[in-house]
Amino acid sequence: MTGNEIRKQYLDYMNENGHAVIPSAALVPENDPTTLFTGSGMQPLVPYLLGEKHPKGTRLANSQKCFRAEDIEEVGDNRHTTFFEMLGNWSLGDYFKADQIPWFYNFLVDKAGLDPERIYVTAFQGDESAGIPRDTTSVEIWQGLFSEKGVSKGIAEIGSEEDGGNIGMGAGERIFYYDASKNWWSRAGKPADMPVGEIGGPDTEVFYDFGTEHDPKWGEHCHPNCDCGRFLEIGNSVFMEYLKTDKGFEKLPEQNVDFGGGLERIAAAANDDGDMFKIDLLWKVIEQIQTLSGKKYKDNTEAFRVITDHIRGAVFMIGDGINPSNTEQGYFVRRLLRRAVRYADILEIPAGKMTDIAESVIKIYGQHYGNLTDRSEEINTAIASEEEQFRQTLVKGLKQFNKISLQLHVETKVVDGKKVIDKSVDPVRKKSINAQNAFDLFTTYGFPIELTVEIAKEKGLVVDTKGFEILMTEHKAKSRAGAEQKFKGGLADNSEKVVQYHTTTHLMLAALRHFLGEHIHQAGSNITGDRLRFDFTHPEKVDRETLDKIEAWVNMAVETGGKVTIDMMSKDDAESDTTVEGSFWDRYPDQVKVYTITGGDNTIFSRELCGGPHVEGLEQIKGKFKIKKEESSSAGVRRIKAVLID
Counting C-beta atoms within 10 Å of the first and last residue's C-beta, which end of the chain has fewer, N or C? Predict the structure, then answer.
């Protein structure tokens, strides 16, 4: 089965079992300050798993686009990718283990065609210290399913991953009990790490056995959670059934199911090949690279995999409105494209061909993700521009590299007021590019370390890669610390003052459209508890007189003490309603929230699509609205910085 067929089969199957199929959320989470990207299928559903009612009901399913930036350096083996799709289904206080486990198993065997003899599962061993029993219910369900298929159903007691390497697997064992480090889910981790008020529960994971030989570097014996490559996790059902209280763990009144299954991983199992890049969704791209390079995948697997993964990730991110830049999400798009260009050079792919590879991604994924087809021109323009810019950067970087290498070969000292060659310099050091130089080439000129090492080798030089890694570790730590002080475009948090500012931006946008025209739409926002920053589409500077009118209009609206109400609407209805203002429509699900701000005399001030928190009444906005600055943000986009003054 193709990847597109598996996705469709899964969504159709869950729909037949009473699930509403919802669209994928965007790769950039809406008003979620905790992360730059949507990194899991359940992430957009967290509010509903915590109790908010979903407009589509209690049974949901979708295929969610995901991106994990931390995996960029891992790409090159047969299973790591930065972008991936997660098939998911959720029960919000509806069905539980007795339905969920058979549904997924039957889908794998009866729909995706997987061999039941090669399916293995894990379950929660229990946590005696937390008073949480082992998940015997899931195990009993699994035993019944395996019996129906005529396969073994033996149970093994494992514990931790390390224990698994010591114990291994016995004949006929198919169900494995692991401890909370492997088969328990909560946002805080293991039961002992959970704060009071946190919910969590056991999970049961499904693995596929590719039958490859065990690599003893991962432990003496193999087992389902071994990292040697023989087993691949393809799905995980989380059963959220516990609440941590100050007295211990209690059962939740409503129990939820959160299932996630990797589309690419299930496709690899259906393809009976542990190399995920050989599934059709990726192989079509690899075939294009083979054509462009004249080289074979089997002879250059790392380069092919990096290019395939990185171009696919960049296409999807640009398709969601994230363009290459030096900050936040855009930085990762830039990094993906530049690494792809570098590996394309290794394969001797002609310059300017990144868009050809992008087109192969759009062609195969556009069947399901129509925004890729709709935005193909913008995607290709952004990729072509970034490739051209990076090649100019490479030229500058090579000049700097040559300067460094020349300095290594000739070092001088001053003797009697004259420069002379210093023959005492260690000849080994003369042939070594130090860590700081390699680091500067990376941070200033965008040279990946592998590029520096390759060029150095051509010139008979070596690179202090260990020292470089130390500097990179320090750099990443500083970047993480900095990221904790920053946040993506949107809300810093959901604190009272941030919510006040967020509601005020709705009034300000309405005022901008009132005084400047309906061509004005939101182009981005960045809101903290101290101020708002708001980007909007407008071709020229806004004069102070108009800004004063906007200020007065917003303050007038607040002073009426009106209310904020929410309407749930289909996205199609909201988009066709001329009274509803909205931006970034592609980022929203098919059911959306429209916030209406009404004055005390029932005058409608603002009616806008949004997904974030708002005040319930305008009297909750404290302080006078004041525009501090209006400036250019980018071509055709202006920026306002404003505050609420007590």
Answer: C
State pLDDT tens for residues 11-35: 999 999 999 999 898 888 765 666 7
Residue 261 near residue 87, CB atoms below 8 Å: yes
In angstroms, the CA 67 to CA 319 distance is 13
Q: Is 248 left (phi over 0), alpha (psi -120 to 50) or beta?
A: left
Give the distance from CA 360 to its chain's centroid.
22
* Partner residues linked to 243 by β-bridges: 199, 250
Given CA atoms 44, 46, 52, 53 in this order, what sign does their dihedral have? positive
Question: Is residue 138 within 8 Å of residue 202, measured between CB atoms?
Answer: yes
> What are the structure tokens assigned to 69, written together?
């930036």
For domain 490-645, give the fold.
Answer: Threonyl-tRNA Synthetase; Chain A, domain 2 (3.30.980)
Q: What are phi and psi of 616, to 5 degrees?
A: -85, -30
DSSP 498-509: HHHHHHHHHHHH
Produce one character per residue of 138-175: b if its CB has 16 or more CB atoms within 10 Å, e if not. Answer: bbebbeebbeeeeeebeebebbebebbbebbbeeebbb
Assigned token pair, 136: 């015997």
Token representation of residue 214:
């065990």
Partnered with residue 567 across adjacent β-strands are 594
Mean pLDDT across 76-82: 79
Contact between 527 and 505 (Cβ < 8 Å): yes
Beta strand ranges found along 246-319 (DSSP E)? 248-262
One-letter amino acid for residue 525 of the chain: S
Domain ranges of the chain: 3-278, 280-391, 410-484, 490-645
CB distance 641 to 628 below 8 Å: yes
Q: Are 152 and 146 in contact (CB under 8 A)?
A: yes
Listed residue (520, 503, 524) closest to 620, CA to CA? 503
- What pLDDT is attached to residue 69? 81
Report how far residue 109's alpha carbon sits from residue 64's, in angstroms, rounded to the nearest whole number: 22
Other residues' Cβ atoms within 10 Å of the Cβ of residue 528: 16
CA distance linking residue 347 with residue 140, whole number of Å: 52
The class (CATH top level) of 3-278 is alpha beta
Per-residue pLDDT tens over the stretch 552-591: 999 999 999 889 998 888 888 888 888 888 876 766 777 7
Q: Are strands 432-433 and 462-463 parallel, antiparallel or unpaired?
A: parallel
For residue 490, the cross-strand partners are 526
Q: What is the pLDDT of residues 388-416, one digit of tens each?
A: 988 888 888 888 888 887 776 545 556 67
Among 454, 457, 408, which residue's Cα sits nearest to residue 431?
Answer: 408
Structure tokens at 296: 């074979």
The DSSP letter of residue 70 is G
pLDDT at 258: 95
- Distance (Å, whole) CA 628 – CA 502: 17
pLDDT tier, 428 (very low <50, low <70, confident <90, very high otherwise): very low
| Residue with the two structure tokens 């432990």 | 219
Q: Are 350 and 289 in contact (CB under 8 A)?
A: no
Beta-bridge partner residues of 240: 256
Quickly count: other Cβ atoms within 10 Å of residue 417's Cβ: 5
